[in-house]
Write a structure and sequence with these properties.
100 residues, mainly beta, Jelly Rolls, 6 strands, globular, dioxygenase activity, dioxygenase, RmlC_Cupin_sf, Cupin_2
Amino acid sequence: MPEITAIDDLTDSPHAEVFAERQPRTVRLELDAGDGVPAHTHPGTNIVLHLLSGHLELALDDEAYELTPGEVARFSGEREISPQAVEHSTALLVFAPATE
């Protein structure tokens, strides 16, 4: 039997883990307008970021991308990531082990 959870029921902020064992790591990221996450990396992973609501500016290394609801960004965790909320935003991120 699957476990079914609404995104809104994942309430830890700004990161709510979907799986207790964190393999694969999947989180709900919620940021208020103007808030962001400092630049960092996730070595050894590939990342999928699906913006559910709001408007994010996603900095990857020295490049910036505007994301709107429904858009998906896929990138290497080796890149330096820093999401910033232009308006209140909720995203789902999946961190999958990178393969060689």
